[in-house]
Design a protein that fits this description.
This protein has six helices and four strands, in the order ααββββαααα. It has one domain. By secondary structure, it is an alpha+beta fold. The longest helix has 21 residues.
């Protein structure tokens, strides 16, 4: 499934404007400093920083390429799933997806819970949903098992 490009960008830059403004500023600020490419209808910036995985702000994806080719592919697919969530949720993306995802990823209590209970990062609804939509909308499969453990 794919949105026609004009409709995809019309929705991203109207209904989903807040996250795309933030993503666009980041994309432009990092241009020339880090490699960038297109992935389907998204714009990917590869930020090689220790401890950084990835984040999507509208159609702008920022991710670490340093975990190998298969993991990089899978992260692109996952993060594109967040781009599609942005299309659907628009201005509600921040409270429904971004904030819960940020807390689940970064709060020490959440990190400890996942580690102690053996819970996949992708068990949180925001992340599992991004996985499902990433594979559906890109028509690409994950290459590693990590993304299937939800």
């Amino acid at each position: 499934m794919r949105f026609p490009k004009p409709l995809f960008y019309l929705i991203q830059f109207t209904w989903a404007l807040p996250q795309n403004l933030a993503g666009g500023v980041g994309y432009l600020a990092l241009r020339g400093k880090y490699p960038q490419e297109r992935f389907h209808q998204g714009f990917v910036t590869y930020v090689a920083k220790k401890g950084f995985g990835g984040v999507s702000l509208g159609c702008f994806i920022f991710m670490n390429p340093g975990r190998g080719a298969e993991a990089t592919h899978d992260t692109r697919v996952h993060e594109f799933g967040h781009c599609v969530q942005s299309l659907l949720l628009g201005v509600l993306y921040w409270p429904v997806i971004a904030i819960p995802s940020f807390l689940w990823c970064n709060l020490p209590v959440c990190i400890r819970y996942r580690k102690e209970k053996g819970v996949s990062y992708y068990k949180l609804y925001t992340e599992g949903w991004a996985n499902r939509w990433g594979t559906k909308w890109t028509k690409e499969r994950f290459l590693t098992d990590e993304y299937y453990h939800v």
